[in-house]
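Hey L., structure's done. Input below.
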Amino acid sequence: MVQIDRKVRFHVSPKTAVAIKILRERLVDTLSSSYSDKPISATQEKWEQLALIALGRLKPAAEQFSF
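Output:
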């Protein structure tokens, strides 16, 4: 189960829950770096773009992600 703001709950598969957890951890790392005026690495930039795609704020490109 994924919980948002202690109010909204979604039942997701275990694999999806792990993916959301990893994405959230990477996004927190990226945002903390950018807010502390540290330059973000190329890997962090890819995680940020992936988070924006997941949130629906950015259209995915076919060749954009190769981890």
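The CA atoms of residues 3 and 9 lie 4 Å apart. Helices lie at 14-35, 42-54.

-- N.
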